[in-house]
Structures are given as C-alpha cells and as structure tokens.
Amino acid sequence: MKYSDKPVFHGTKVALLSLGCKVNSYETDSIRRQFEEAGAEIVDFDGACKGIDGGADIFVINTCSVTNIADRKSRQMLRRARQNNPGAIVAATGCYAQIGAQELIDSGVADIVAGNSHKSELIAMIAEYLEKDRTEEPAHREMSADAEPGSPSNLYVTSMKDEHCYEDMKIDSCDERVRAFVKIEDGCNQFCTYCIIPYARGRVRSRTPESVLEEVRGLAEKGFKEVVVTGIHVSSYGFENYEKATAQNGTKAADDDNVMFNFTPLLELIRQIAKIDGIERIRLGSLEPRIVCREFAEALAAEPKFCPYFHLSLQSGCDSVLKRMNRHYDTAEFYEKVELLREVFDDPSINTDVIVGFPGETVEEFETSKAFLEKVNFAKMHIFKYSRRRGTVADRMEGQLTEAEKHERSETLAVIDRKNHHDFMEIFADRDETILVESVQSIEGKDYYTGLTARYVSVAVPCDEFDEDPVNRFVTVCTRGFLNGEYLLGLKKAIL
Predict the structure, then answer these.
(1) How far is it, in rounded angstroms, from Cα 378 to Cα 417?
(2) Neighbours of 226 (CB within 10 A)
(3) Once rounded to an integer, what is the mean pLDDT over residues 72-84?
(4) Residues 436 and 421 in one domain
(5) What is the pLDDT of residues 153-175, one digit of tens each?
(6) Closest CA to 370 of 356, 358, 382, 380
(7) What is the CATH number of the domain that holds 128?
(8) Under 8 Å between Cβ of 398 and 360
(9) Confidence class of residue 244 from pLDDT cuts 50, 70 and 90?
C-alpha cells in the first residue's frame, strides 16, 4: 500500500492512549481524527484493555520519555494492551518510541514503532501491516533518512537531527470539552543537561500561521471558546526563520545565550487568533523567561482575549544549579521578568516548574533555591524529583542524590506550594469573576458545575442554581470563599 492511498478501517475498533505533555495529546487527537475519517470505531482504552465489548483490534500508545518513570509507564501501558488483547495490533509512537524503538520491537510489546517524525503516517503504516502475512518474520531495521515510506518494515524511526520540516498534523476536535490545545511548533534548541527531549523531538520547527489559523477557525466552528497555544518550546516559534533571514543577509544568528527571543512571530499569531469569531480566550503554554520584555507584556495585556496566566519555566532558584543545568538565565533576570509581568498585569497567575535533587545539589544550594521560590511566591509550582536520563549530560555528572534526599526536598517545597497556591486563590475569594464552565463534579456529596477563571482559578457553582446546562458557557459568579482547598465557591449572577 502506498502512503498516498486512503486506508479503510470500517468496523475496526481502535483504542488510543496519550501519555505525557499536551503536545502528545494534540498529536493523539490528530491520529484519532484520521482513524475516524477512515471509518474506525474509537473505543475507551481502559475498557478495551479489560476486554469490554470485545476489546480493540488496534491499540495506539503515544509514549512519553521526559523521565525514567515516563519510560516505565509507557512500557507498562504497551504490555497491558498486549497481554489482555494478544490478537490485536499494538503500535507505539512518541518520545519513548523515538528513543527506545528497537527495545520495544525486540521485547515484543509493540508490533509497529513510529518515531516522532512519522506520526502522521502511522495510520497508513498500520493499514500496510494488516495487508502483510502476520506469520512472516518481521524485517526489523532503522529507517534511514532517505528510506522510502512504506518499505517492508514495522520500525519507522528517523534520527531527529536530520528533521528540518514541521510534520503537519491537524485536529478538528479534542478530548477537552471547552478548551482546545493547538500545537504551533515542535522541537527544542536549548539542550538543558537533564533533558532528552531535543534528541527525541529534534530542532525547532514552526508551523505556518496559515495552518494554525485554519485549524483554530475550525475549532471555533465546533464550539470551542478557548485555545491554548502549545508546543515543545513555544518561545522559539518562528526562530528558525530568524536564523534563515540572518544567514541570507550575510550575518550570523546570535547564540541563544546572548539573543533575546524574537517574540514578534508568536505575538502576531496571538493577535490573529484573537480576531477569529467564537474564540473568547487565548492562553499560552510554557514560556522561556527570556521572551518576556516590556513590549511583549504590554502587547499581550492590550489584547482583551488573552488570559493573564503565565507558566515560566525556572527549574531551580540557585544560580550555580541553573548553570549546571545549562539554563540560559540567572535568578536575578528571572525575578525581573516576574516583576515586570506583575507590573503590567493585575494579579497575573505565574506558575513554574522546579527540579529538586539535581546532581551535585548541596544542602546550601537547595536552601538558596527554596528561599528564592518563597521570594517569588508563585501561584503554583510543579515540583519534580530529578530523574536520570541515559544520553544526557546530567546522567554522567557526579554527585547523584538518593531518592530519599530528593523525596525530602520535594516534600519541603510541596508545603510552600500549598500555602502559596492557597494565598493566590484567596485574592479572588470575595469578588465577581467570569468562569468558563467545563463539567459537573461531585464535591463533598453535592454536585457543582466547575470552571476556570482567566487566571486559572477553579470555581464551583451549585448545580441547583441553573435551570439549563451551562457547560461551555461563560458564567459570571460572585465568589464566597473556599469550598475546599481546590475550589472557590461561586454563586451564579449571570450566564453570558
């Protein structure tokens, strides 16, 4: 079968599972869309693994490799699909499939492995596999950069260092009921010493604005009111075009250490998305702090649809650890960016990632980091214990900490995070807010409609206050303190 042919899967049951980041979720939604267009029936992954209603004919697991735990979970899910459905086809794609492809094939947990530059072709690979005599001995090999698609193999992995084009994948819906994640770029050029993702995803490759806007228009027509602009390194959107332009002008692009990210392509994309009828909220995924400058912040603040919610990746509050991590800023610069955002926006939600137990992190370095985190007072911290990744610089560093040490430091920061998050929510505990209602939740024995404010504060409104279903509607509420540690209690004022 040629990849240009359209596969047919009428009557075929397909179960999909996405692990890890929102980029993976987006790509899984795109794969789901292809199967649905080919006539397949999409079934619940957990139910299929248990054999409910006959299980599934095909399992697709979009794997993650950001930590060793993610690797392990990816293997577990593949084994689970295989063991409970021995007659089904099991396909693996994603970052762990890219990094550990041969291992997956050799272990027998996957029939087909597609690397990160071949996800859009996965459905055609499965169709081709079905045409083969499955009793044949499979011809396992690594697919070279110049190999012809559709050649007789069930291992499709190309070195990401050779990948220079954005793999065009599209969605017209997603698992989220009211919020759509829209991928605008792939890859990362940063090469932090702890991170395997640049090797699994390759260099920065940006999606064309026309493609993004076409997709957002389609999502708006389907009723989605909020979009989250996401990618592997959103701050680098359009950066490869800057490199090309400087090369054509006979100049050399500055090193990432010295250049401020060119925010213009990202800012212009946000402005164009804001013009699309039906889209009422726009959020940004994780940002590099170096992209934040006054012009960027003020331009975002001038856009009414932009939500003042920022995820600025920090990783450590100690300069010596940041240097070992190969982060391209220090704490003074980071703090300057945070204060700028707080100056330009009213009560912005500023969130971050923190790694504890990085190789060589001394007690003094941890205490320095802890003090900085208390100083910044984030609305929310996502705390990770350092995980060794084979193939990274940090994996070879001396001074690897024990799991017990990392756990203790993680628990220390979790206490700070809970207090800071409570304090941030308390700012909004007695005022009028607008929420986009997402779902019904049972909280302490009572049913509530729950949703998020523009600043990502969770609010719950008693269901008995509504005569009609308000899901995917904007509702103005007056908040009346905490319902529990996760939600503010809201009382309905108006449905917009």
Answers:
(1) 8
(2) 23
(3) 92
(4) no
(5) 588 887 787 767 888 888 887 77
(6) 356
(7) 3.40.50.12160
(8) yes
(9) low
For the full predicted model, state whether its pTM sits above 0.70: yes
Q: Which of 122, 157, 154, 166 is nearest to 32 (CA)?
A: 122
Is there a single domain that holds both residue 401 and residue 482? no
Residue partners of 367: CB distance under 8 A and separation at least 6: none
Instruction: Note the helical H segments in 302-330.
Output: 319-325
Distance of CA 233 to the CA centre of its chain: 10
Is the per-residue pLDDT at 467 higher than 80?
A: yes
pLDDT bracket for residue 152 (50, 70, 90) = very low
Q: State yes or no: pLDDT of 427 exceeds 60.
A: yes
Q: Does 171 reside within a domain?
A: no
Which alpha helices (DSSP H) does 358-495 contain, by range?
Answer: 363-376, 403-426
**Cα separation, 105 vs 113, whole angstroms:** 7
Domain for residue 106, yes or no? yes
pLDDT of residue 174: 73
| Domain C-terminal end among 101, 136, 171 | 136
Q: Which has more pLDDT, 76 or 244?
A: 76
Question: CB within 8 A of 135, min separation 6: which ones?
Answer: none
295 with 360, same domain? yes
Is the pLDDT at 213 greater than 70, yes or no? yes
- Among 127, 195, 228, smallest CA distance to 387 is for 195
* Mean of pLDDT values over 40-46: 94
Number of folded domains that form the chain: 3
Tokens of 89: 């086809």
Q: What is the CA radius of gyration of the chain?
A: 23
Which amino acid is present at 347? D
> Which pLDDT score is estimated for 53?
83
- Give the residue from 403, 426, 449 where a domain finishes: 426
How many beta carbons lie within 10 A of that of residue 361, not counting itself?
Answer: 24
Domain holding 487, by residue range, is 432-495
Q: Is residue 442 predicted with pLDDT exceeding 60?
A: yes
Same domain, 395 and 448: no
What is the C-alpha to C-alpha distance for residues 214 and 218, in angstroms, rounded to an integer?
6
Interior angle at CA 15, CA 121 and CA 123, nearest 5: 15
Residue 396 CB contacts under 8 Å (≥ 6 apart), including other chains: none
* 359 within domain boundaries: yes
Asked whether the beta carbons of 109 and 79 are under 8 A apart, the reply is yes
Q: Other C-beta atoms within 10 Å of 168: how many? A: 10
